[in-house]
Amino acid sequence: MAKSAADNSIVRLKTVLDVLAEGTWSENKLNAGEVLAEAASRVPFSAHESELLSGGIPRGHKALTAATARLVKAGWLVKGRSGWTITEDGLRATVAFAKPEAFATALAEGTPVPEGTPLPEAPKKKPAAKRAPAKTAAKTPAKDAAKEPKLEQPSAVAVAGDFSTLLGAPEDWAPQYDEVQMKYNARKKLWSLTADLPAGFYTYKIALNRSWDENYGAFGVRDGVNHELKHDGGKVTFTYSHATRDIVAG
After folding, report:
1. Which of 20, 159, 189, 226 has the CB geometry, 3.0–4.6 Å to 56, for a possible disulfide?
2. How far apart are CA 238 and CA 182, in angstroms?
3. What is the mean pLDDT of residues 9-13?
4. CATH top-level class for 2-109?
């Protein structure tokens, strides 16, 4: 049982690198939370790993987050304020150490990526099926209605957590106060709030429209577990995307 859990941990860690590598060929860039969520989706947590810790985070998620430091140490991953980026060496590592056993050994022993290892190839696109020329027709209201609806933004977005009073709010975990409201950037379609927090461990969630009626936790899950932030002290910017319902702090 223990060996299986250990094997899953390595496969899940390798999947993080694979997801980031796939992202280099896609226009959909995933943030750190989405990368971890995708890795956990492809390699599901065991019953033990799914147990929630005191902060409301699954044990496996916390272990995976900590384990990604090994990818940074290997030079395969860079964690920046704008998100996670796979390095060129990391891309080659997905080719050189494609099997979990080789991947685990390379991480444990610090094995460098062999010289001459090629970059992973972009996935081949299937050729579009040939269709008969369509007859020209005037646009109709029904055709226009088939277009993807525009995402409606909330009227307010708050970062509500156990540090709200540090931002000047009268109480913690209260999304109705002005001090915890985020500002909206219409061009980027993102909400953000920058705060100066002392070093510490914090938990928080996103709450919309100054109430808890609609709120999002880790992985952008509605009514989900709390986000966690281990902060070294100083300025930190929280950025929320209503398209993904997820948040990045950095």
Report:
1. 226
2. 8
3. 92
4. mainly alpha
